[in-house]
Amino acid sequence: MQAERYRPFVERIDAGGVVYEHSADGSPATATLAELHPGKVISFSPHHTNSAYEAFREHGRDRITLISSVRKTPVYEADLIVLSGFNSGGELQSHLFEANAKSRRFIAIELANQSDSVEVPDLLATLRVFLHEFSEWSVVSQNQEGDGLTILSRDEGAKPVLSSKITMASNFAQAIAKHVADGVTKVDQTILQHRLGICTICEHRNDGRRSVCGCYLSEKVAWRTSEYPMGKWER
User: Fold this and answer.
1) Domains defined for the chain, CATH in brackets
2) How far apart are CA 235 and CA 185, in angstroms?
3) pLDDT above 50 (res 216)
4) Rounded to whole angstroms, how far apart are CA atoms 158 and 151?
5) CB contact at 8 A, 81 and 22
6) What distance in Å separates the CA atoms of residue 36 and residue 28, rounded to the nearest whole number?
7) CA 33 from chain center: how many Å?
8) What residues have CB less than 8 Å from 234, skipping those under 6 apart?
9) N or C: which end of the chain has fewer CB within 10 A?
């Protein structure tokens, strides 16, 4: 399951690219990444698993670098940076912001194999802050069940495709007509923040627009008559 979630994005990285993972809890995905990526894989973890060492023995030091203990672990420049095992947003935040500067294409946040003490709402809040500040990143894959893997991309080719200009114009015209008929009424701050929170980490967001309709979120999200095409606001 984990391999299949990573595969569509790792396969976009050629053999000359680099994959870096930082596992805070000792459950790295080294073997999976080495299986999918023919190039360099750098893995930091306080306790590497047997599968990580098996991958190292199979592929050798030219392809696999395992780091277990350094005073301050750097985030390496890479095409894909995988962050996993963080128990709070505070722990994740500094690494996520550093990954913004070091990742050329993808950031993966892996919540698998974590204990009941993990503050998932806190982690999601950190992710929302990050995506709000760095709007060039979009969620391109998300699964909050099972492996809990969220993948972000600044690679335009991996982001959800926007609707055609004709479709966008038609959708926006219909939305404006409904908004005007409703007296140009906007929602209150509680509902607005609820909607923004969902849209910011939605896999259908492409920068500041929703791919399924092409509309700008900054405008439509505040209108009382606006609806989410996939029904997420009502869940």
Assistant:
1) 2-158 (3.40.50.150), 165-234 (no CATH)
2) 22
3) yes
4) 10
5) yes
6) 14
7) 17
8) 228
9) C
189-195 contacts at long range (C-beta below 8 A, 24 or more positions apart): 192/221, 192/222, 194/233, 195/221, 195/226, 195/228, 195/233
Cβ atoms within 10 Å, residue 154: 19
Q: Which residues pair with 108 in a beta bridge?
A: 82, 151
β-bridge pairing 205-206 and 209-210: antiparallel
Q: What is d(CA 141, CA 105) in angstroms, rounded to the nearest whole number?
A: 14
Q: Give the strand pairing for 40-44 and 18-23.
A: parallel
Among 67, 138, 66, 130, CA closest to 101: 130
Look up the pTM and report it.
0.77
d(CA 37, CA 120): 29
Question: What's the rounded Cα separation, in Å, for the pair 36 and 6?
Answer: 8
Residue 125 backbone dihedrals phi, psi, to 5 degrees:
-65, -40
Question: pLDDT (tens digit, 9 = 90+) per residue, 11-32?
Answer: 889 999 999 999 887 677 888 8
Cβ atoms of residues 80 and 108 within 8 Å: yes
Rounded CA separation 76/96 (Å): 12
Can you read off the two tokens belonging to residue 127?
Answer: 């992710």
Instruction: Specify the 3-state DSSP secondary structure of 138.
Output: strand
Question: Which of the two residues, 202 and 24, has the higher pLDDT score?
Answer: 24
Looking only at the bridges linking them, the beta strands covering 103-110 and 138-142 are: unpaired
